[in-house]
Amino acid sequence: MRSKPGVADSSGAGEEFVEYKMVKMGGPMFSLKRTKMKPFSSLSGSIGFLCCLGLVHGLSNGVARLPALAYNTWNAYQCNIDEDLIITTAKLMKSLGLQAAGYEYVNIDDCWAEKNRSSTGELVADTTRFKSGMKNLTDQIHALGFKAGIYSDSGWFTCAGYPGSFDHEAQDAETLFGKWGFDYLKYDNCAIPFDDITRQGIVGKYAQMSTALANFAKTGKTIVFSLCEWGWSQVWLWGATLGHSWRTTGDIGPNWPSLAAIINFNSFITQATNFYGRNDLDMLQLGNGGLTFDEAKSHFTAWALMKSPLIIGTNLSAITPDILGILTNHEILAINQDPVEAASVSPFRWGVNPDWTSNDTHPAQYWSGPSQSGTVFMLLNTLDESSDMFFNLTESPWIRAGRQYSVRDLWTHTDNGTAIRNFTAHAVPTHGVVALLLKDAGNEPNGIFPQCAVWWQCTAEDGTRVGG
Ligand code: GLA
User: Fold this and answer.
1) pTM of the shown model
2) Residue 70 Cα, ligand 1 centroid: separation in angstroms?
3) Statement: residue 56 has pLDDT above 60
4) Which is it for strands 310-312 and 278-280: parallel, antiparallel or unpaired?
5) pLDDT recorded at residue 57
6) What ranges in 128-255 are assigned the alpha helix state H?
7) Which helix (H) or strand (E) holds 440?
């Protein structure tokens, strides 16, 4: 047991026709003919599509109601991928118990394609590394009980220089999801065409694929759409109208400063997350780089309790029992996959910093949120030394004044007594985390002083101000 919290003192524009000839950009020559470019018309198409579904939130279109639990190749392998690796990884997901823990998607990131489209403009899978073909691969993934994810880009090229889907959205949807049988699309933001070609911003560019997927869904298959545009254009304000998740930051690194900066940024936009649409804090780095065990636990806890997709990105054939244990913590996963309460945890006190202060090194430390089975607390020790972490229960909006709470530790899997008024987690390790589930355990004992846990404005019935 690495941290041992304990109970403390109980006290649009119209249609446009543009034609392009031979463009060269970091790759072979392409003949590009662009027709019927309709800035924002696709967005309104999406909204039209959305309007008729009786929306609860965002797309609400039958898939990705809860955060995706997945594997993705990028963080561990970058471009060194092939079909054998994908199948080996899927089999390991099964044999290591990750599938049983809920992980559902096996996703291929960048570098799976040939550099040139076919003569009819179709994407072509790398004929050496994916020699058996993508349909064969998704069939195998499906046979293992998983769903399959693929990657493309909203511009001319992917970030590694393979063909992007710009101006090929409908055709690529047909290839990737119709012919090849993928179920999930991560959609990147590299190689953005000139403004006088797109005549639209990021929203419009992503709307093109969202519309293509909405049209494809009419065939009976709805695709999970994962926007990856690194938080540009305040995606948390509109991402839910186009897709199921949206990256909010640049690429994650396998080190604590990167994790802390991502937590800090996302601490200010937690309200964007709901069923069917959520902030994506980027793929997990558990098992990679130089994260300590406590940092790995904090990483997983923050991502899970902030309701991010949880996308494993390490070499599963070399995974340690420690990391596997973190990834399969069923009590943490249950919060991430809560079918009743979609909300992210949010900070109620920043701790090191004045409240609402952005600090990449010291993000907010005291967080809470609702869950179907109680109030979740997350305490993050961002300091470079272990420290006690104290909070008054009613600092969280989901706690009832005058009640006591049983305390469940979601990492030690123990019940840690009853908290009255406040709680102290003792000796939380450097960059470590405490995750608690507090359940209402009835009225607090009579005669507790002060009469109000929050002293300000505490007033007797006769009007006597007893507090500050
Ligand atoms: C971008 C994305 C990454 C990864 C790479 C692939 O950097 O943000 O997650 O997909 O592209 O080239």
Assistant:
1) 0.89
2) 16
3) no
4) unpaired
5) 58
6) 134-143, 169-173, 195-198, 202-217, 239-242
7) strand 433-443
> Residue 144 — very low, low, confident or very high, per pLDDT cuts 50/70/90?
very high
Partner residues linked to 438 by β-bridges: 375, 407
E strands in 166-290 = 184-188, 224-227, 245-247, 278-280
Ligand 1 pocket check for 395: Cβ under 6 Å: no
Task: Name the one residue in this structure whose structure tokens are 């390490």.
Answer: 314
Q: Percent of the chain scored above 70 by pLDDT?
A: 87
The CB of 228 under 6 Å from ligand 1? The reply is yes
What residues act catalytically? 188, 251
pLDDT in tens, 190-219: 999 999 999 999 999 999 999 999 999 999
**What distances in angstroms separate CA 129 from CA 47, 111, 125, 417, one per listed residue?**
39, 10, 8, 55
Give the integer Cα–Cα distance in Å for 344 and 332.
13
CB atoms near residue 427 (< 10 Å): 15
Q: How far is the CA of 325 from the centre of ligand 1 (A)?
A: 27
- Going by DSSP bridges, is the β-strand pair 310-312/346-349 parallel, antiparallel, or unpaired? unpaired
Please state the φ and ψ torsions of residue 93, each to the nearest 5 degrees.
-55, -35
User: N- to C-terminal Cα distance for the chain?
Assistant: 41
Residue 29: C-alpha distances to residues 117, 156, 169, 325, 405 (Å): 11, 12, 20, 49, 66
Residue with tokens 């570098």: 111
Give CA separation, 194 vs 32, 120, 155, 199, 412, in Å.
14, 24, 10, 8, 53
Classified as helix, coil or strand, 427 is strand
Is the Cα dihedral 274, 280, 283, 286 positive or negative? negative
Cβ 160 under 6 angstroms from ligand 1: yes
Instruction: Quote the Cα angle for 260-265-266, to 5°.
Output: 100
Residue nearest to atom 12 of ligand 1 (CA): 159
Query: To which residue do tokens 């590394």 refer?
Result: 129
227 CA → ligand 1 middle, Å: 11
Predicted confidence (pLDDT) per residue in 147-165, tens digit = 999 999 999 999 999 999 9
